[in-house]
Automatic annotation (TrEMBL):
<dbReference type="Pfam" id="PF14728">
    <property type="entry name" value="PTHB1_GAE"/>
</dbReference>
<dbReference type="Pfam" id="PF14727">
    <property type="entry name" value="PHTB1_N"/>
</dbReference>
<keyword id="KW-0175">Coiled coil</keyword>
<dbReference type="InterPro" id="IPR055362">
    <property type="entry name" value="PTHB1_pf_dom"/>
</dbReference>
<feature type="coiled-coil region">
    <location>
        <begin position="224"/>
        <end position="251"/>
    </location>
</feature>
<dbReference type="InterPro" id="IPR028074">
    <property type="entry name" value="PHTB1_GAE_dom"/>
</dbReference>
<feature type="domain" description="PTHB1 C-terminal helix bundle">
    <location>
        <begin position="597"/>
        <end position="672"/>
    </location>
</feature>
<dbReference type="GO" id="GO:0016020">
    <property type="term" value="C:membrane"/>
</dbReference>
<feature type="domain" description="PTHB1 hairpin">
    <location>
        <begin position="492"/>
        <end position="595"/>
    </location>
</feature>
<dbReference type="GO" id="GO:0060271">
    <property type="term" value="P:cilium assembly"/>
</dbReference>
<dbReference type="InterPro" id="IPR026511">
    <property type="entry name" value="PTHB1"/>
</dbReference>
<dbReference type="InterPro" id="IPR055364">
    <property type="entry name" value="PTHB1_CtH_dom"/>
</dbReference>
<dbReference type="Pfam" id="PF23338">
    <property type="entry name" value="PTHB1_hp"/>
</dbReference>
<feature type="domain" description="PTHB1 GAE">
    <location>
        <begin position="288"/>
        <end position="380"/>
    </location>
</feature>
<dbReference type="Pfam" id="PF23339">
    <property type="entry name" value="PTHB1_CtH"/>
</dbReference>
<dbReference type="GO" id="GO:0034464">
    <property type="term" value="C:BBSome"/>
</dbReference>
<dbReference type="InterPro" id="IPR028073">
    <property type="entry name" value="PHTB1_N_dom"/>
</dbReference>
Length: 729
């Protein structure tokens, strides 16, 4: 008839009270943080989960006769005489922290201990043996074993962080229901005539009583009159419906209508001039001044839009002063305007001078008051002056490209007014571009021929200037209503220089893998030394450390040094990937100008060589591009049905070296030079006819190997027209 109370403190002490009187206190061994605690009346023991991720049971009698907590500060002799050492009754290692423990007994003489872990659900016997366990594919928040419907089984309610409540019979899921909130505690209660009411409590104090059940459906489907099927009418109707579907799914018919009826539009206006006062913050560029340019973004809403948020994205190493904006709900025919500045943050030249604005919002409807999610976006282009400034042209350079046109040369003052001094007038036939990162690129125009030369000491620095030259030339002749302007490239594709960038990037990836393995080894060593030291410190009889502290300090310094080296390698790998991306863009442009590829074929090239926006250790550029190029070589660029029958590996993994990738890229360019055409069609017969037109000889594999193993050579590919002339001779 007396109340016995057990209180667990934060320092691992169990305090036992009889009514209001303090009986005794005991410290749990090996305690670090408190875990869930419960009492089993059948075995007269306390059950908890320790910081060692073990379920531990302590008999009340053992607690009563163990060493008193108040005597822990006494001398060793007094502790030995005060009582026995606290011993655990049984232990079960579950390997995870526990959220709650329950002891239930629905059958006479049989009790079960239920433990809810972070990822598993356990049922134990009262002696610590596992009756059953259930692996959960969600993150649980609370549970309660509430009854035994069938003899030998126990029903349990488990709530999770996905706002779901699941009903289990032992390990079998019997029912699942949605809750309006995440429960932190659940009970089953009876209120007067209501039995089996589920009571849930949230972390913000919201209490809800609910029940499981369904309302009866009184609807009965009417009987269908049996009739004969007219297959001719059905076929005609099916063809008509398919025609309507084809018309409705045409892109050119859908997009203009959707543009007219767009609920929310976003526009970006880039300032024509750089900011008078630079807004660059925390830039890693070592230049004297890092410029910035202002982008004005306007969000206009035609209808009521809820929860609008704006994201401004630019490709690293570019950065914006603020990339996330959250607005209040937009009223019909209202707008919001924000202003951001874009600048160069990383110490390398970007591969793209473009940005993207994306607005996400919801439109409420009668059927869905919470709203239907929608997205509106737009792109904007950044000026070249953001990453480079005018400088003196340089005559010497390691890499040179020549772009041919079919129109007379245009003065640089008219197409590059922001880089040419007006005092030079029409006489300027050379322009220098000094990048903020330190490298220089020179653009030359021929006075007698229709050619432009771009030269630089770095291959990747040619890309932005070449792209800007072709873009400005196209705009210049478009203003003059000249529709037949075209650029061509007849030089050699700089594959060897391109392969050097691939090898540099792959070498840094290998270094990252080595650093990861070394860090893992040193971390294991560090934890092992820590365990040894903790064992020495916990021992009642102090023992010499045997230089374990010195070894711990040395290992710690090695871990820090390896982490710094891995971080530096990660920075270098990002810069190498940016340079590789720029060089890849350049190679794609040169191939398209060389072979006069269509827009669809250029899109296939970009999808093949630029599959990743971000390079990771798990999925890298080399293996992805190798798989894509191999697919094209075995489909649209195949030279025989034997190659088409070859199967590609379904798994992408990091290769040992880049020799296979470089060999495939060389073969890819060689097949294009011999008349191959890029296509994603599935008709192999059509592809075969397109790949090998009349007069084209197949490529000997020995010839390919000779091309790839000669060091220091630049791959030279002639057009198909030149090959046919040589054969006709």
């Amino acid at each position: 008839g007396r109340d016995l109370i057990c209180i667990q403190s934060m320092d691992g002490m169990l305090m036992l009270f009889e009514q209001e009187s303090y009986a005794f206190g005991r410290f749990l061994p090996g305690f670090l943080l408190p875990g869930p605690l419960t009492y089993s009346s059948r075995t007269d023991s306390f059950i908890t989960v320790s910081s060692c991720q073990q379920v531990e049971s302590y008999k009340y009698q053992v607690l009563e006769f163990a060493t008193d907590a108040d005597e822990r500060q006494e001398t060793e002799q007094q502790k030995l005489s005060s009582g026995k050492r606290l011993a655990v009754d049984w232990v079960l290692n579950i390997g995870e922290q526990a959220l709650d423990i329950r002891v239930v007994s629905f059958n006479q003489g049989v009790s079960s201990v239920f433990v809810l872990g972070e990822r598993n659900f356990y049922c134990l016997k009262d002696n610590g043996q596992i009756r059953f366990m259930k692996k959960l594919d969600y993150s649980p928040s609370c549970f309660i074993p509430y009854c035994s419907v069938q003899e030998g089984t126990i029903n349990t309610l488990i709530g999770n962080h996905n706002k779901m409540l699941n009903v289990y019979q032992d390990v079998t899921l019997k029912w699942a229901t949605q809750l309006p909130h995440v429960p932190v505690s659940v009970k089953v209660a009876n209120f007067q005539d209501l039995k089996g009411v589920i009571v849930t409590l949230t972390d913000d104090g919201h209490l809800q009583c609910s029940y499981l059940g369904t309302d009866p459906s009184l609807f009965q489907a009417p009987k269908v009159d049996a009739r004969e099927i007219n297959y001719e009418e059905m076929n005609a109707e099916m063809k008509e419906l398919q025609k309507i579907i084809r018309e409705a799914t045409k892109t050119q018919d859908i997009l203009p209508e959707s543009e007219k009826q767009r609920d929310v539009t976003v526009t970006a206006e880039v300032s024509p001039d750089l900011d008078a006062e630079s807004q660059a913050i925390e830039s890693e560029v070592k230049a004297e001044a890092v410029p910035s340019v202002t982008v004005k973004i306007t969000v206009q809403s035609r209808v009521a839009a809820q929860k609008p948020s704006l994201a401004v994205c630019v490709q690293a190493p570019l950065a914006v002063t603020c990339d996330q904006f959250v607005f209040d709900d937009l009223e019909p025919d209202s707008s919001e305007t924000v202003v951001v500045s874009v600048f160069l943050k990383g110490n390398c030249t970007p591969s793209e001078l473009e940005g993207n604005c994306m607005v996400s919002y919801t439109i409420p409807t009668e059927l869905n008051p919470e709203g239907i999610p929608r997205v509106a976006q737009c792109n904007f282009s950044l000026p070249l002056r953001l990453v480079c400034f005018p400088s003196q042209p340089s005559k010497a350079a390691n890499h040179k490209l020549t772009i041919d046109t079919n129109k007379p040369p245009v003065t640089f003052l008219s197409i590059f007014p922001d880089f040419v001094d007006p005092s030079e007038g029409d006489q300027a036939n050379a322009v220098g571009f000094q990048f903020l990162t330190g490298s220089k690129t020179t653009l030359l125009a021929s006075k007698t021929s229709q050619r432009y030369r771009i030269q630089s000491n770095q291959l990747e620095d040619l890309w932005l200037i070449t792209k800007e030259l072709t873009r400005r030339l196209e705009e210049h002749f478009k203003k003059q209503n000249c529709k037949d302007f075209a650029c061509t490239f007849s030089g050699s594709i700089p594959l060897q220089e391109y392969f050097e960038l691939i090898d540099r990037h792959f070498e840094l990836r290998l270094n990252a893998e080595k650093f990861r393995e070394l860090l893992s080894e040193r971390a294991v060593q560090f934890r092992a030394i820590e365990r040894r030291l903790l064992t020495r410190f916990k021992d009642k009889t102090p023992a010499p450390l045997q230089h374990l502290d010195t070894l711990l300090e040395g290992t710690f310094r090695e871990v820090i040094a390896l982490a710094d080296a891995a971080e530096e390698n990660q920075t270098n790998m990002f810069q190498a990937f940016t340079k590789l991306t720029s060089a890849t863009h350049l190679v794609i442009m040169l191939i398209s100008l060389w072979q006069k590829l269509s827009t669809d074929q250029v899109a296939i090239l970009e999808a093949t060589f630029l599959p990743l926006a971000e390079d990771t250790q798990e999925l890298g550029w080399e293996e992805t591009v190798d798989a894509a190029v191999s697919y094209l070589l075995r489909t649209c660029l195949s030279k025989s049905s034997k190659e088409q029958a070859l199967t590609l590996s379904s798994q992408l993994c990091m290769p040992k070296d880049t020799s296979r990738l470089k060999k495939n890229i060389t073969l890819f360019c060689d097949r294009l030079a011999k008349g191959g055409r890029l296509s994603l069609g599935t008709d192999l017969g059509t592809q075969q006819a397109a790949v090998m037109p009349g007069g084209c000889a197949t490529i000997p594999e020995s010839d390919l190997e000779e091309r790839t193993v000669i060091p220091g050579s630049t791959a030279m590919f002639s057009s198909h027209r030149q090959i046919t002339k040589q054969k006709s001779k």
